[in-house]
Specification:
3 helices; mainly beta; about 5% helix; 9-stranded mixed beta sheet; 6-stranded antiparallel beta sheet; disordered N terminus
């Protein structure tokens, strides 16, 4: 038997205890006259036991589900769990081949995996075919259960939670790393999970450019419409079946000639949702961070630009768009993971400066030594972009990051990290010595690093949609904002239903540390749907690094009682 065939026949050993890394300073000292880093990195004293191909935050906890892919045909230990409060980590065979899924969190708080991979074989505990399944995670007993079935077999799909428990599943292909692309999306009813899904037609201009349709960007707009974007084209449709096309997104300009879909993956993210002064949400935006050219090889330089599209409800054409705004990035980037912070800044974490997606160092030869911070609230491009401190651990491919209730960002995973240490970063970045890296790290944005932060003293655990509620804080400065953020469900540089919502509020005339907060109007159900959220309050600006913010508190938004 050849060495390659023999390797496939042998089941790999599950990741066991690994020797500790050489000690590194968690916050490397700055060279004289260096700009203040946008964020700092610190290693956690424990390791994950599954690479974070996808990661879902279990609501009301600091537990994170990580799902790995099949390393070889027999490998089944792909369901990981990380508990930041206890430092305990584990891995198991979930019973379903949920690697390469479209993750989501239902309004009940249950994590769900849509699609995935083919089954594993051999003597290990089996994971059954999951490309056409919805699989739910049961947090009470750490088990996985089949919830429903799709018509199509989907590897690399995206999901979007809609109103009334519906879930839109878009993209993915029947075969791994190959077509054919599915010619339809699907609508699943999570409140009646065993009912057949309904096939949904893609918007025509989207369909024309979708290719294999891997991990498209989907977003619910304020009045319930759905934004679709893949590769270089997009549209806005109604938010209910049959998803009628309302308007086409403007085409990307020649100044952004790059491709954005996996494996040429740009990071893509909606901005935070901010109301107008009258409390109505009329404007939305998203940014494409990087990408690359069609035939990129491992040393092909990645895109050095971003592209931002701003839309607004208008009388002329229902939704009007500003021209795409193309700006230089501080560093080239592909495979970066964009995380929206409570203060509206976006951390573009990890990725590479050359290459394309794929496991192993042969696809992206040069990892990104620093992450990028983008602040869409600033008025000039020079103010909007900055770099973090050295990244500590390379995060190239099959890495995922999540906003934690602490306000920091959990960073996990990489199975393409057998690359060279970037020149000049000796002693600042600790290479894993192999393709796979189970180490965990936390990212601390500078606006919450060694500064006075607001502390939430009182808040309601349950909030009715369309209502008002009161938050009291302890803080020596000025309270400047209240936001709700979804728990994370992320994979492959994109968040599923990821959003940070800025809420209108009024300070108490007798107590500047008490705010009466207005939930979005029931006329705009797409801004905040029922479900679990993290509540944060914002304080003063931390030098030029954005407003500081509190540790979060878990709340649940519920539909009003009729």
């Amino acid at each position: 038997m050849s060495g390659f065939a023999d390797a496939l026949a042998r089941p790999p050993k599950p990741p066991g205890p690994l020797p500790p890394s050489p000690p590194l300073p968690p916050f490397p000292p700055l060279a004289p006259n260096s700009p203040i880093p946008a964020a700092y990195f610190e290693a956690l004293p424990f390791r994950a036991q599954a690479i974070a191909v996808s990661m879902i935050q279990v609501p009301q906890t600091r537990k994170y589900l990580t799902t790995w892919r099949r390393v070889v045909a027999d490998f089944s230990l792909i369901g990981g769990l990380v508990d930041l409060d206890t430092g305990n980590t584990s891995v198991k065979a979930p019973g379903y081949a949920i690697g390469c899924n479209g993750p989501l969190i239902l309004e009940t708080g249950q994590p769900v995996f849509a699609g995935g991979e083919t089954r594993n074989s051999g003597s290990r505990p089996p994971n059954v075919e999951s490309r056409n399944l919805f699989v739910g995670y049961n947090a009470n007993n750490n088990t996985y259960t089949k919830l429903g079935t799709m018509f199509g077999y989907r590897w690399y799909p995206s999901t979007l939670k809609l109103q009334d428990g519906k879930v839109l599943v878009v993209g993915g292909s029947m075969n791994i790393d190959a077509g054919p692309a599915l010619q339809y999306a699907e609508l699943w009813d999570s409140r009646n999970p065993t009912a057949p899904t309904i096939n949904v037609t893609h918007p025509d201009n989207y369909f024309a450019q979708m290719g294999l349709n891997y991990f498209p960007l989907l977003a619910m707009l304020p009045y319930g419409e759905v934004l679709w974007f893949v590769e270089r084209a997009g549209a806005i449709t109604t938010g209910t079946f049959p998803f009628t096309k309302l308007v086409q997104l403007p085409p990307l300009p020649p100044s952004f000639p790059f491709f954005t879909q996996w494996p040429l993956a740009a990071g893509m993210s909606m901005h935070a949702w901010r109301p107008d002064p009258d409390g109505v949400y009329r404007t939305f935006a998203f940014t494409i961070f990087g990408g690359t050219i069609r035939n990129a090889q491992s040393t092909t330089p990645a895109s050095n630009v971003s592209a931002t599209l701003v839309g607004r409800y208008c009388t002329e054409s229902y939704i009007c768009f500003e021209p795409w705004r193309v700006e230089l990035l501080p560093d080239r980037r592909i495979l970066g993971d964009p995380i929206v912070l409570p203060n509206e800044r976006i951390l573009l974490h990890g990725g590479a400066t050359t290459g394309r997606g794929g496991s192993g160092g042969s696809y992206a030869a040069n990892g990104a030594p620093r992450s990028i911070m983008f602040d869409p609230t600033k008025s000039t491009a020079q103010q909007r972009w900055s770099l973090t401190a050295p990244i500590l651990f390379m995060r190239i491919y099959h890495h995922t990051a999540c906003l934690d209730i602490s306000g920091k960002i959990l960073s996990a995973g990489c199975d393409a990290c057998n690359v060279q240490l970037p020149v000049g970063y000796e002693g600042l970045i600790d290479m894993p010595g192999s393709a796979t890296d189970f180490r965990l790290s936390m990212v601390t944005p500078r606006e919450i690093f060694e500064v006075s932060r607001p502390e939430i003293l009182s808040f309601p655990a349950t909030i009715s949609a369309g209502s008002t509620f009161t938050v009291t804080v302890s803080y020596p400065g000025a309270l400047t904002g209240v936001v709700l953020a979804t728990p994370c469900a992320r994979t492959h540089s994109i968040g599923m239903d990821s959003r940070v919502v800025v809420l209108a509020y009024n300070l108490s005339p007798t107590d500047p540390n008490t705010a009466v907060v207005n939930m979005p109007s029931l006329d705009q159900p797409g801004v905040l749907m029922p479900g679990h959220y993290m509540l944060f309050v914002l304080g003063d600006e931390a030098d030029s690094g954005g407003r500081t913010y509190s540790t979060g508190r878990w709340v649940r938004v519920v539909a009003p009682v009729s």
